[in-house]
Every structure is written in structure tokens, then in C-alpha cells.
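Q: Focus on the chain.
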Amino acid sequence: MDFELKEENGFSYIEEGEGNVLLLLHGLMGALSNWDEVIDTFKSNYKVIIPILPIYDLPLITTGVKSLAKFVHKFVQYKGLNNITLLGNSLGGHVALIYVLSHPEKVKALVLTGSSGLYENAFGGSFPRRGSYDFVKEKVEYTFYDPKIATKELVDDVFRIINDRHSVIRILAMAKSAIRHNMNKDLHKIDIPVSLIWGKNDKITPPEVAVEFKELLPNAELHWIDKCGHAPMMEQPTEFNIILKSFLDKIKV
């Protein structure tokens, strides 16, 4: 990644470009680099911002999706952001939904891709065994349609995280919080434009999850990407960005 990581007031984030704000939220074990192609494509016309979510830094007792949404609000307040288009992948989508419900005045539109919040089959139903590199590799590959997307660098990152006791305890706490905080009964309150961009081959938040989001969100459109798993912006970035651009053009004022 060639983007500068800024450190200010307890926040770590990337900020590129000028214009209307695209605020991107990564997943449970996602990295800022997951969004590289989105930044490259949209930084010429938008201010693209990605904060690092403090998944491993919260006190264990407050580790959960609501705490992450509160963190996002503190960041938005610190940066003085308004009229935001919020994009979230996986856990980041779940956090985005909670944030929109709490602060609808801040968000213009929402983009969800492989979002949790209704159902998530994390790691194919089992958590990676610590110390087993091959098992971790298999489960990271499960995230994608094309297992080659799971590079050694990506697998090494996940292996390192789950072999750190401090981190793995918080990952488990965050995953349990996400399961407990089901959004089914709240989604009807979100009436801003929503674009659902989903991999047809997503095994973690499968296609029926996207269909349910479409049914429950009053102002949502659903787009499928073929030969694509849980992280469309990584696996099929060109198609993802075409769909995203069309949505952004549509909501321009």
C-alpha cells in the first residue's frame, strides 16, 4: 500500500483526495489494503477515508459492534464529517448499519458488501485452530471464490492475529457480539439509499443474506458479482467499482 497512514488524536487512518466523503469500514480481520482499488479509483473525485477500527484495543468488557459504532462517531466528530457515503464490508457493514441508526443526520447513503448483521458463517462454522498454519490457510481461502486471492501475506496476517492471545480473545468477543446484535427488526428504519454489492459465491454471508437485506431495507438496490466471494472489492475490484460509481452518480445532488 502506497497510502500514508495518519496518526492523530488516537486515530489511525488513511485519507486521500478531495470532495464528498466516502468513509470505508473494514471487516473483523480485514486490512486497510482491502480497499486499495476503491481508493485508487475514487480519490480523484472524492475524499476517501479509512479509519483503523480498534478491534484489538477495546477493553474486553466493551468489545462489541456497538463500541465500534461509537468509535466511528468519535472519528466522524473529530474530522468534522457530514453528508457521508458509508461503505462497509463484513463486520464493517454491521458497524455501518448501527452507526446509521444512531446518527442518520450524518449519512447520505450506504454501501454494504458481504455485510454481517443478519447472518454470518464465520470461518465456515469453525474458528481457526491456533498453531495450524494449513488450517488457517484453508479458512482464509474459504473467504474467496478464487483461493489464489488468499496470498501468503494475507494468510500470514491472519495466522499472526489468531496466535496472539490478546487479539484472539477480542476477535471471539467481537464475533459473539455481532451474532447477538441481529439487525432484523431495525433495518426498516434506514430509509437512505443503500447499494448491496454481493458476491454470488459468498459462503460467509451467502446470497440469501443479501436478498433478506434487500427485503428489509426500504430503499435498497441489490447487485450481484459472479465468481466472487465475501470481499468483492478485493476479488472483483473492476466490477465492484463500476457498480459503486453508478450508485454514487445516482445519488449525487
About this structure: The domain at 5-121+182-250 is CATH 3.40.50.1820 (Rossmann fold). The longest helix spans residues 165-180. The chain has one domain: 5-121+182-250.
